[in-house]
Amino acid sequence: MICGNFFMVRNWEVGRFLSSVKLLTSLLINLTVWSDG
After folding, report:
1. Among 9, 28, 29, which Cα is nearest to 17's?
2. CA distance 26 to 36
3. Per-residue pLDDT reduced to its tens digit, 1-37
4. Would you state the pLDDT for residue 12?
């Protein structure tokens, strides 16, 4: 039970990290496109 809970928490943290990375990447792309244009 504790082991499953641990894995769920890890997955949630990884998902949050990935979504923030995606957000930062899209922001960077938008900035480059904006400064290019």
Report:
1. 9
2. 15
3. 566 777 777 888 899 999 999 999 999 999 998 887 6
4. 85
What is the distance between the alpha carbons of residues 12 and 3, in angstroms, rounded to a whole number?
14
**First CA to last CA across the chain, in angstroms?**
54
CA-based radius of gyration for the chain: 16
**Cα–Cα distance for residue pair 34/26, rounded to 1 Å:** 12
